[in-house]
Design a protein that fits this description.
Elements lengths: L1 E9 L3 H13 L5 E5 L4 E9 L5 E8 L1 H7 L3 E5 L2 E5 L4 E4 L4 E9 L3 E3 L9 E2 L4 H11 L4 E5 L3 H9 L3 E6 L12 H8 L54 E6 L4 E5 L1 H8 L7 E5 L4 E4 L1 E4 L3 E3 L2 H4 L13 E3 L10 E3 L4 E3 L13 H19 L14 E6 L2 E7 L11 E7 L3 E8 L2 E8 L5 H10 L17 H5 L1
Parallel strand pairs: 1-2, 1-8, 2-5, 8-20, 10-17, 11-12, 11-17, 12-13, 19-21
Antiparallel strand pairs: 3-4, 6-7, 7-8, 9-18, 14-15, 15-16, 22-23, 23-26, 24-25, 25-26
Helix pairs in contact: 1-8
The protein binds flavin-adenine dinucleotide.
């Protein structure tokens, strides 16, 4: 059966849903079909601006009908796209439906990059089903190896209890995907011991309460989880003691060994179901390996038969400053896309919720403007990188070139840290602020954001910029 809609979106994650909402607001009289392989969709709510650029929000997993009830022009299909025929502007689904579109937005996210596919002792965490699988494995585990140095690895090392953790990171410090070695030292104090003994003020919750949805089907290509995916989960292993964490710095997994081979190499008296040979020569045994080494964009399906679709080296669909791919009338947003425009000095892509939402909303604007033949300016959210999250129970705000990305050695760092309370780092170049890391309740996000955007010369302040007795905001007022 052939259907048609002005706008078609593939994907029911944050990017796809934000795009659908944007389209229905901007072009309410046009038909919008959202096709999603996951039975539940992700919607953003309780949006709280913390500054001009920095936004905090909750994410709700909800039934697709909720979206159609709120936006009558949106129809949601629970189906999987099998083929894109971009020449004829058609999409075919696995259930045998065909839909023609005027404008298409691909928001199919990514899937976890695994150190070994289909290995019984190697798991990843991406969607509802993978969390269920992980939870059932962890409760029978004494020792786990976490491989990766991003958000998921960081959260797991803090959230797991009753288990021995070996954390394998390729960098020389933890959480390197987000922070510098100084901030990593600040976090390290929280690695050992039990988070269960922390007071309520320290057990800060992030934004999303993850609920195991009854409707979630095994093997459906689910939307990625996000903040607080672990909030209602029992992530406790077999050990009575709280946990121990040992970090293996500067190494990666070279090979996965079976029990016999691994035991012989490791010299361990215990026998473990799986062993990892690391690039530093160590062999470590464990019950379970979590592979948390990033995502691979779900783009291959759209490249098949569409040779003109440009993909970036990381597999993302390359998009220009109007979120348009190299195929006519085909846009992409969220984890599946790769920003292919000349980037603003203080912005870079990172596959995060914030950017999935910004890109989805902005893609909607671009699609509408293109259909109406109207000019459009790029959204100001792409001027500066902003991210707010929680690591080890602390609020973490990252602004601009917070890790001095691309600045080389020609920059200077201003630091203020009080162990257990706050860690503030400003990245300065030629007296101007280029980025900032704010950990704890610093209340400095707005000031730092303005200073990065305005590029004011702060040379006169020198180190006094972070002196708690100097109110920089007053000075500028
Ligand atoms: P997704 O949410 O992955 O959605 C993709 C959608 O496409 C799904 O609905 C899927 O069913 C659908 N789909 C895929 N293929 C097809 C097909 N062929 N046909 C139809 N539908 C299809 N980000 C943060 O900012 N902060 C965090 O703290 C954070 N924590 C995270 C923790 C975990 C465990 C994970 C996995 C991710 C985390 N992220 C976090 C990243 C964040 O979740 C993603 O960047 C974001 O969800 C990407 O949104 P998206 O809409 O692009 O893709």
């Amino acid at each position: 059966m052939e259907h048609s809609a002005t706008y078609v979106i593939v994907g029911g994650g944050i990017a796809g849903v934000s795009c659908a909402e944007g389209l229905s607001f901007l072009h309410p009289d046009k038909t919008i079909i959202l096709i999603t392989a996951s039975p539940l969709i992700k919607a953003v709510k309780n949006v709280v601006p913390l500054s001009k650029h920095l936004v905090q929000f909750d994410v709700e997993e909800c039934a697709p009908e909720k979206l159609s009830e709120k936006h009558s022009s949106v129809t949601v299909w629970h189906d999987t796209v099998a083929e894109l025929d971009s020449k004829n502007h058609l999409l075919h689904t696995t259930s045998g439906k065909t839909v023609s579109y005027k404008k298409l937005c691909i928001c199919t996210g990514g899937r976890a990059k695994l150190i070994a596919e289909n290995h019984p002792h190697v798991v990843s965490i991406r969607d509802t089903q993978s969390v269920k699988d992980f939870q059932s494995c962890v409760k029978n585990a004494r020792r786990i190896v976490i491989v990766g140095n991003g958000g998921i690895a960081t959260e797991l090392s803090y959230e797991l209890e009753g288990i021995e953790i070996i954390w394998v990171v390729k960098d020389e410090h933890i959480t390197a995907a987000f922070v510098d070695p100084g901030a990593a030292e600040f976090f390290k104090a929280k690695l050992e011991g039990s988070k269960e003994t922390e007071g309520p003020s320290q057990r800060i919750c992030k934004r999303m309460r993850f609920t195991e949805a009854e409707k979630a089907k095994a093997n459906a290509a689910g939307a990625a989880l996000g903040p607080d995916w672990h909030a209602n989960l029992n992530l406790r292993g077999l050990l009575a003691a709280s946990k121990t964490v040992s970090v293996k710095y500067g190494c990666e997994v070279k090979e996965i060994l079976n029990a016999d081979e691994g035991k012989a190499r490791s010299g361990d008296t215990d026998t473990w179901p799986v062993y990892l040979l690391l690039t530093n020569g160590d062999t470590v045994g464990c019950d379970l390996v979590v592979s948390a080494t990033g995502v691979i964009p779900n783009s291959a399906l759209f490249a098949r038969g569409n040779d003109d679709l440009n993909l970036a080296p990381d597999g993302g669909i390359t998009v220009d400053e109007f979120m348009q791919s190299s195929l006519p009338d085909v846009y992409a947003a969220g984890d599946v896309c790769a920003a292919g425009w000349p980037l603003a000095k203080h912005w870079f892509q990172m596959r995060l919720w914030t950017q999935a939402r910004q890109m989805g909303m902005y893609a909607a604007k671009c699609m509408v403007a293109s259909l109406r033949n109207e000019p459009i300016l790029q959204d100001f959210c792409f001027e500066m990188f902003t991210h707010v999250t929680k690591f080890f129970g602390y609020k973490v705000v990252l602004l601009g070139l917070h890790n001095a990305q691309g600045l080389g050695s020609n920059c200077e760092l201003l630091l203020r840290a009080t162990m257990g309370v706050e860690y503030i780092k400003c990245v300065m170049q030629d007296g101007k602020m280029q980025g900032a890391v704010l950990i704890g309740e610093t209340d400095l996000e707005e000031m730092c954001e303005n200073l990065i955007l305005d590029q004011l010369d702060l040379s006169d302040f020198g180190e006094a910029l972070l002196d708690p007795n100097v109110d920089v905001e007053d000075y500028f007022d």
